[in-house]
Design goal:
Elements: H1 22-47, H2 59-81, H3 102-127, H4 135-139, H5 145-179, H6 181-194, H7 205-222, H8 226-243, H9 248-270, H10 279-282
Helix pairs in contact: 1-2, 1-5, 2-5, 3-7, 3-8, 5-6, 5-8, 5-9, 6-7, 7-8, 8-9
């Protein structure tokens, strides 16, 4: 399951040779692994006396199960990438420097969020406002400070990293080999919206699909997953803060989330997991 160290990368549209048919396989595998992982957490918890019913889990278990799901997303992407005994490298999932200047890439991140927000506002005006999500209540953010902090870490750091690795890093990259990047982006966006059906109101699934599409466009333009992770973290941080009715704490959350993600990237680069190869070496301009 470990990503191999940096090695020379062949020129390719998305830096890999993953067949398009493995994209839905990766998504199915992610949910199978999630279910197995959740059972491995919930069954021992029930044996030890946790109050588990068919309709509700204790907040701590909801948090643990969601973390397991996110890790399963990464595991599924890596396993599918290794299909046929392929070598797996971090740069193949987009963990590589952006082909744009960091200044342009940094400007693109809020640009994606603003485009998503504008669509969401128009959509809300057209179909009506959504009901407030109960995900944070399920995570127990209103019960203890520890659950609040852990929920914030999950929502603004872990989820953006893991979801981007699966959806943009693997599924979009694989689907782009079928009918081109645009079809791949549309399909990935639809899948991205659909997987949030259990945690978001139905009316929000279309805006989330649009966000998934925009993140694919951002990935194609920058050649790097880092801006996508940052934009995803920005969106989740703002949503988390709004649902918690935060004021100045929202700015602190955004800064903390982005700083944590950047620190993780630096750490993984220092230990050799993340590639420092130039994007132009992997994806020639104009691809």
């Amino acid at each position: 399951m470990e990503l191999a160290p940096t090695s020379p990368a062949p020129p390719a549209l998305a830096g890999n040779d993953w067949p398009a048919w493995t994209a839905p396989v990766a998504l199915v595998a992610a949910f199978v692994l999630s279910a197995v992982g959740a059972a491995a957490v919930d069954i021992p918890a029930a044996i030890l006396g946790a109050n588990i019913t068919t309709s509700k889990l204790p907040p701590g278990l909801v948090l643990a199960d969601t973390v397991v799901q996110d890790l399963a997303f990464v595991a599924a992407a890596v396993l599918c990438a290794r299909f046929g005994a392929r070598a797996v490298h971090a740069w193949q999932f987009g963990l590589r420097p952006t082909r744009l200047s960091w200044r342009r890439a940094a400007l693109a991140v809020p640009g994606v969020y603003v485009a998503f927000l504008l669509f969401a506002l128009v959509w809300s005006a057209a179909v009506g406002s959504s009901t407030e999500q109960n995900l944070l209540e399920d995570l127990g953010t209103n019960e203890t400070t520890l659950l609040l902090i852990m929920s914030a870490l999950l929502t603004t750091v872990i989820a953006p990293i893991c979801e981007e690795l699966l959806f943009r890093g693997y599924i979009f990259a694989a689907l782009s080999k079928w009918k081109g990047w645009l079809v791949g982006a549309v399909l990935t966006g639809v899948l991205f919206g659909a997987v949030h059906a259990t945690s978001s109101p139905a009316v929000d699934l279309v805006p989330l699909a649009v966000l998934g599409f925009l993140l694919c466009v951002l990935y194609r333009q920058t050649g790097s997953l880092y801006p996508c992770i940052a934009a995803h973290a920005l969106n989740n941080s703002i949503a988390f803060g709004v649902m918690e009715h935060w004021d100045w704490q929202l700015a602190v959350l955004i800064l903390a989330a982005l700083s944590t993600i950047a620190s993780l990237a630096v750490l993984l680069a220092r230990v050799g997991v993340i590639s420092v190869v130039s994007t132009e070496e992997i994806i020639p301009s104009g691809s």
